[in-house]
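Next up, a specimen:

>
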Amino acid sequence: MRRDLILSNLRIELRRKQANYVAEKSALKWVSKFLEEMSVVHSSQIRLWQRDYFLSSLESNVNRTKGEILQAKSALSFLFNVVLKKSKGIDLTSQSDENDVEPGIMKITG
């Protein structure tokens, strides 16, 4: 889903959870900042390492308060768990077929 659809779904889910206006604005701000900084234009581009990198860059910034970092963690956690329905990022495994094997294992056919 595109960036604007991600943000729209985030708004819908926050309202479904009856989050207050300030919490909604805060979550939208942090998720927008995350998507912008990571240059994400589609949900298929979002990976777990990007979330970790974004949060670690926030933590290393001395101008950020612990409250802001907690808001960012909460917003990104909500994005991954509720909106994208992926607790560990996007699942890269597609439906396997009969020719799929584990990485590093060579399948001999004859």
